[in-house]
Design brief:
Two copies of one chain form a homodimer. With about 700 residues, chain A is of the alpha+beta class. The first copy, chain A, has three domains: about 140 residues, Sandwich (Immunoglobulin-like), CATH 2.60.40; about 190 residues, Immunoglobulin-like; about 350 residues, L-arginine/glycine Amidinotransferase, Chain A. The first copy, chain A, contains 15 helices and 42 strands. In chain A, strands 2, 4, 6, 8, 9, 11, 13, 14 and 16 form a nine-stranded mixed β-sheet that branches. In chain A, a hairpin with a 2-residue loop joins strand 26 and strand 27. The relative contact order of chain A is 0.10.
Amino acid sequence: MDALQEQVSQRLSLSSVSNHRSCEMMENSWYQRTLRLDTRTPMKAVHVIGTALKVNLDRGAPPSSRFFSVRCGPNVQFRVSPAPEAPHRPSPTVLTGNSVLLITMDHASENENDSKLSVMYYNDEEEVLGKAILHLTAVEISLDVDADRDGQVEKNNPNKGCWTWGPDGHGAVLLVNCDSDQRYLKRRDCEQSTVSTVSDLKDMSLMVLRTRGPARLPEGYKLTMHISQGDAESIRVFRSTSSEIHKNILTENVLYSTFVKQHPEVLSSEVLSQEVPYLGGVSEMNFYVEGLRFPDKDFDGLIRINLSLLEPISQGFPETPIFTDSVVFRVAPWIMTPNTLKPVEVFICSTVDNYTFLKGMKKLVQGNGYKLTVCTEYMNRGDRWMQDELEFGYIDSPHQKFPVVLDSPRDGPLRGFPYKVLLGQDFGHVTRIAEHVSSLDSFGNLEVSPPVSVNGKNYPLGRILIGVAFPTTMQGRSMTKVVQDFLWAQKVQEPIALYSDWLYVGHVDEFMTFVPAPDRKGFRVLLASPDAGYKLFRGLQIDGHGQAKMFEGLGEHEEITVNEILADKVLQEENNYVQGCIDWNRDVLKRELGLDDEDIIDLPILFKLLEDKRAVAYYPDMVNMIVLGRELGIPKPFGPLVNGRCALEAEMCSLMQTLGLSCTYIDDFASYHKMLGEVHCGSNVRREAFDVKWWNLEM
Amino acid sequence: MDALQEQVSQRLSLSSVSNHRSCEMMENSWYQRTLRLDTRTPMKAVHVIGTALKVNLDRGAPPSSRFFSVRCGPNVQFRVSPAPEAPHRPSPTVLTGNSVLLITMDHASENENDSKLSVMYYNDEEEVLGKAILHLTAVEISLDVDADRDGQVEKNNPNKGCWTWGPDGHGAVLLVNCDSDQRYLKRRDCEQSTVSTVSDLKDMSLMVLRTRGPARLPEGYKLTMHISQGDAESIRVFRSTSSEIHKNILTENVLYSTFVKQHPEVLSSEVLSQEVPYLGGVSEMNFYVEGLRFPDKDFDGLIRINLSLLEPISQGFPETPIFTDSVVFRVAPWIMTPNTLKPVEVFICSTVDNYTFLKGMKKLVQGNGYKLTVCTEYMNRGDRWMQDELEFGYIDSPHQKFPVVLDSPRDGPLRGFPYKVLLGQDFGHVTRIAEHVSSLDSFGNLEVSPPVSVNGKNYPLGRILIGVAFPTTMQGRSMTKVVQDFLWAQKVQEPIALYSDWLYVGHVDEFMTFVPAPDRKGFRVLLASPDAGYKLFRGLQIDGHGQAKMFEGLGEHEEITVNEILADKVLQEENNYVQGCIDWNRDVLKRELGLDDEDIIDLPILFKLLEDKRAVAYYPDMVNMIVLGRELGIPKPFGPLVNGRCALEAEMCSLMQTLGLSCTYIDDFASYHKMLGEVHCGSNVRREAFDVKWWNLEM
């Protein structure tokens, strides 16, 4: 919400609350409104059930008044303070400088001014000096939302005005309406100021104005819905005007233009305050609240909507808000899905040269019963890096949930895919625009861990991982600030920054991944390890396989023996350096994910340095794999053949077998590895959402 | 701090902490750095005391290794994990896949590589297969600040890396260096990138880098101080290069140019990272941290400074940070001073027409022993509204405290006064620039309550009060957003918004003030009250003083009798409306300051409406007073004379007398009241700071 702008409206509000303390205030304190009584003019007042009217009796008393008495109709209660010494004595009470009358009413009025209260003032001789009359109209007003997060809008939840995290928390949830339910022109729903379809309504949060009272409010009184200027940038509010709406929703037969008209916009960045009709009797009016933007550096995700009852003064004076009810929403964060979640759909690109890869992937994906979507060259324009252009995530609320693609500012030739192909009904899209991007802005450099617990702090949705340069250097590449700010602001998967600038491409997926495991924390971290690679190669040499060749069958110029690799001192030095870089990340991962060494598996992978001293994988980088349940699609490493079997594949299979995981090796050598990427870089997986609800996190 | 940018540096840091959880982490967890050992090359490592080196023994073991043994020099400790079955048996330990060696050292080295550790590997027959040697240099590094807030920089406070509120809280404090210690050109010190004088240094926070180790670090190692890009906008760091500095500080005899050279800038918005020298042996290096900006909407006030030890790789590779120590500062908020604090200095303007007022004020102020500063017409250029152009406050830290004037964006003819006159040595200046300002941006519309407690929540520094329009209307004036955001961001005097747009001038000081009281909460709220005014006038009428005249002696056309006032139905209606507006604020004040009706005193004051339906005081607005201890300087109301005494003055005196306060009536009729202001509008009071330290607040 919006600092003091917002505070202003909170201060005017019964439920003036956005933190814990205020929640308690609302429960314990009695909302009192000071009212003037006048012995010369009968007064009229509208009373809102649940509040109290407070009259300073001395103030309006005729001069020389010494005593007073109060009478009222059956729907009115009153209390005098300080309490009279003999409260049951029928005679008048002594009037003091701080004599106060508290008036409450229990039931809504059936007619305007149908209740009455009067105060008689007496002098020393108990002669009547004057009589103040108050005509009362009682109404019930409640702006209601799903503050208990069960998918239903309950009535007047006492906690609706504040938002707290956790299973015992409360406060309503709002989605950014970032999918496209448009029937004609495709664009994000939140970019247009009309409600287009029933499915569009379903992406908004229902808010109900419940009122009870006479057929009409007394002359000049009105209801107004209002928001602060800051909040107005983040939401729109629509009203449902037709009592037939619910039938229409069910039948979906209403015309588009009729539907739009039946849902006028009430509040927006242009209209911060608007009168809403009072329907009379017992009535409910439906509003739909639409989120326009995700939490970000300048937006904490909380917004407040207020409903005030205004009292007329007279022509030319602003009406006075005499009662304000308010509700708070939190905009749902964008949530990433780790490798341990069930896959739903795998995406890869088809290019002129990747038939072998495509064939291998189809067999793996479809063979295991997952949906495979191939992005054709018409759309990908030769850009095969499906991992880098986008990241799949989702947004969740008690009433609606759908996948949302985060579109990278990388914007390679594949850039049209997230918006033109993925965006659709119940498939949202969000992006951040950056002027200067580097390779570290590709989303191979954006991953998320499975759920972890770190020194007693739980991350049931895992933690986001990105790669940057050392903070100690002023050179070096990083992920652009707008994306980092966005990720950080989502809050529920608190990010960790790793060091990836040592890599030529610079993505965290080049040296690490997560696989499911039946034991321990439910997963293992796999780390590329040159030390593990050299250990394996040295073992081969000792066992007499020094002449075994890597890259066999890929053309003679590629081939190299184990002996040759081990004899290359420069390569060894480069890999010592790489191991140091990975170990640096290993230490950060252990600390920030609460891992033991036993949670980490080192994979035998060598790197080499290019001319700019940055590293690339020496042979297909097995850690850059696709994880589909217990099936792993791993870049075929083309390692030395021992007894007809690739020693690297054998080692990998043996390591994964202990976790019950099965390895499929995908030949990506020519069409990915040689272009400095592998299976993971060339694919993307949409996964099921977490069962855990983000609002149940303890923050 | 700066979202993920900052997190990046936190993640790389031992003291990677900005919240409570992380504090615990730092205390409980052992900082471990993964290190490679190699049987073919002796390794060298720098060890930082307080951390541990961790070696995966299996990784670097020669093939066929089955056992290992470890030996080390006297300054080295090690632990093997998993623990050997018979730890005291001299024979080698079985090597497993997860054999880990943890190395620590207790004392700093006297020479480079003066400690040693070696690991021997054996085969099944316990024949030696290889020996890995590690040469160690131990150093102690601690970046130190006054984290316990006692004015002294203690050594390596375990809580220096995180900031918490409260008497048991910790974390250092930083001042915005917003005064002017310049010898020549006057400007705010934080606007120039040099340290000009000793008194300039005193406004900064001392930070000490303590190191202990050999005379020089091993080849290529270096120390670097670094901050995030976000934090760099808020601070500068200078270094003190001369060991003579402390003497110079005491004598203040050093030349300006020498002094500047002795304090080079280390970090700034242009330089986020810079090497700092390692002095060798046991040494301390002093740094001075300067705050550049106050907390605001986009700045929470927290900044982090990091000191890393970098390990060289080789030419062309970025050095690896192998240890990071970091400290957190919070920039001190700007704090307002309520009427209940002791006055230090009173400011008023001299104009061609305000001799009477000046005379009255001089007598009151100087007669009670307070300093009076009169701003001459040369500076005020006819602008007499000393209250409106500026607000006095202060900033406080354990090492320094000084007054700071908040300069209003109002910018009337008096606008030069805060900067040109007030800004000086140990007198700071802060302002916010706004394009469009209204009368509500004058600081008669910015007040602060005495300390209050509201439903269990304490505000020991009181709460700020501002006036705005109803949030339910889209018309209406307000205080400009940049000032509201600034006030809100200071946090320690959480603001309350009142409704003041009903007034023509629109300032909260037109209808309320605070005076000290010997009982209850230590103060009373005084509220203007038309009802109390009418009550008084009616009493006069009944007592036979209906012909008594107001405004007697001010010229015949001004005079009006009590009877005439009471007969004016329009005036009565207007005042009923005004009473409603003030009552609305009364309800907010009671709720937000936790007040009872007994904490409020109604003053007999009438208003009238101007053509735009906004209110001004009908006679001098007694609530618009100056409060100097127990002395009140009150606008002389020129009320009806009864037995030669003004009935309004008498009533006011009687109300204040019960609180032990004495009233002096200042004639401001011609030169202030008729220009729609009074005594308070025309004066300003600088007061002593609170004894309460803001960092001791429970937030």
